[in-house]
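Lab notebook: predicted structure, single chain.

Context: the supervisor wants predicted structures on file for every construct in the current expression panel, including those that have not yet been purified. This is the next one on the list. No modifications to the sequence; it matches the entry in the shared construct table.
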Amino acid sequence: MANRKRRKPDNKHLVGGVMMGDNTVILSDGRVLTIDLHQITMREYRTLFSAATTPEQDDVLYAKCLGITADELIDLSQPDYRAACFAVIDVARKPLESPNSQSASTSA
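Prediction complete. Output recorded below exactly as produced.
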């Protein structure tokens, strides 16, 4: 197989035919959902990664982060539903950016 030039990442990729950006999901019907983790508490955040959480509880949390109702979430097509939930988990797992991450060294 010939070497192919890798495309430079642009912070957007397709998941099941659905375009995802850093904090957004564009559904197959063109709607754009923005992921906002400020809509859930730390207690709720921790349940996102718990095996003891039911799918119904997960749906409520994903929907809160996406700015829609749980009913709207489960009424999405299966590819849109999976992409939206995957996007929430993807954003939730990203580390917070440190304001000091690009600072110069202070050592002499």
